[in-house]
Every structure is written in structure tokens, then in C-alpha cells.
Specification:
2 copies of one chain form a homodimer.
Chain A lengths: L3 E6 L4 H13 L3 E4 L10 H8 L7 E6 L3 H9 L5 E3 L3 H9 L5 E5 L5 H13 L6 H8 L2
Parallel strand pairs in A: 1-2, 1-3, 3-5, 4-5
Helix pairs in contact in A: 2-3, 4-5
Chain lengths: 140, 140
């Protein structure tokens, strides 16, 4: 079964989100885009609080200017473990050690190619469990 | 009046936290270290949930292996706006746009010099307010 990915962005992340969406669809992922129409000057918390409840057993990719605002807002939500990653190594560790279910990306800090590499590292890495599971349980 | 900084770390971040603490004290900051004794194998959520309530009108510097676990746990706490930063530019934007009050650093991903530069950028940057204030209010 194809993996289902929930996407959102604010105005600053919109173009990168569109680019990543196209690539995901080409690769066979099922994409739920919670914000398919650009709204200039919109606020990242509104985007997160709309999209986060749709991330259940799926994963989310949330894009803003820096990834920071998305990551703050997403982690305020119950059941969301969000990581703002600026390199593939962070994305690997966010999945392997933190079992993150939302990846936050900064459109103003990353090239498209960097963002793609970070995203696919995130999507293809499994949680290691073990001692990390005890820590993740404490986040709930 | 000297700025008060709340510090904590898990085992992976302990040495970098000690290094940053020494530097802060030398520069005249008032430091509250919530975890002054290394405990091997301790869990980042425990450290965060102990230290976060001590960050009131102050700022916090929380260090783990990647900064990711600290950032997830810290943002789960009411009143905390935490940013995991891997470069000074991110630290600048986390303060200027997101009014972050906790900086999370990854000891396994940063050199001591990088960590210092990120930390002082964070501590010396003010919140810009304006349209960013509306967004930050929505996080509460």
C-alpha cells in the first residue's frame, strides 16, 4: 500500500511544498495537500492546526520560511512529533531515535535538491525502538 | 541586570552544556543549571520537563545529541517556544520572527565554536513583533 503523506505550508513555504508534492506523486506516494491554494501573508500556526489532526498513522511534511515556526506549532499538537531538519543526517536521526511523524522544512534556508534529499531520508528511515522507545513514550 | 539563562542537557549534551555554561558565566550571565551532574543514559524528556518550568521571563539553552529531542519535548510545554538551530541565521530568525525562548542544540552535530556562535546570536537578538506577534499569539 502506498504511503500517505500530509502536506502543508504557509505562504513562505508554498512553492517548495508544491515542488515536493509533484515529486512525491511521481514516485507513487499518496499525497493529502491541506493547503493547495497560495494565500499571501497567511500564518503558520493556522496551517499547522488544520493539517496536524490529519496526520494519524501517516507522516507529514510541513514547510515554512525556516521550518522553525512549523516545528513549534506542530509539537504543540497531541500525537505530533515534529523535527525541523536542515540536513539528511538530522532527518535520519529524527526518525531512527525520535520516531518523528512530521518533518518541517525551511524554504528560505534550503535548495530544492537539499529539501528533497532530507525528505526522502525522513520517509525511508524506520524507528529503531529500544531505549529510544522509552524516551518517545515520555513525550506523550 | 544580568540576563538569566536556564541550562539543561541529557547525557549526550552534557559536555557541550558544561562548555557553554563556563563561557556564559565568564561573560557575566546568570546561569541556572538544572542538571549539573552527568547521568549516563538519562532521557531527554525528563530533563526538559524539569527545566522548562524554570524558563519564565528568562531564556533556556537545552542540549542533547541532535537538539531534536529537546525541541520536541520543550514545545510540548505550555509557554515554551523552542527552536532547534544548526546555524546562526536560524537562531536569529527564531528570536526575530518566532520569539523563541528556548534554544536547542545538538552536541553530536555542532562544534563547540559553532554552538557558541549560535547561542550568542540567539541571546543577542530581539523579537521584531509586528505581523510576527500575531503568529506567536496563535501558538498559545
Amino acid at each position: 500500500m502506498a504511503k500517505r503523506i500530509v502536506l502543508t505550508s504557509d505562504h513562505a513555504g508554498f512553492r517548495l511544498k508544491e515542488f515536493l508534492k509533484k515529486d512525491l506523486i511521481e514516485k507513487g506516494y499518496v499525497v493529502v495537500d491541506d493547503n493547495p491554494v497560495l494565500e499571501e501573508g497567511d500564518d503558520y500556526p493556522d496551517r499547522v492546526f488544520s493539517a496536524a489532526p490529519k496526520v494519524k498513522h501517516d507522516q507529514g511534511i510541513f514547510v515554512c520560511g525556516t521550518g522553525i515556526g512549523m516545528c513549534i506549532a506542530a509539537n504543540k499538537e497531541k500525537g505530533i512529533i515534529a523535527a525541523d531538519c536542515s540536513m539528511p543526517k538530522e532527518a535520519h536521526l529524527a526518525r531512527a531515535h525520535n520516531n518523528a511523524n512530521v518533518l518541517c522544512l525551511g524554504a528560505r534556508l534550503l535548495t530544492r535538491d537539499q529539501a528533497k534529499r532530507i525528505m526522502y531520508t525522513f520517509l525511508k528511515t524506520s524507528f529503531e525502538g529500544g531505549r529510544h522507545a522509552r524516551r518517545v513514550e515520555k513525550l506523550a
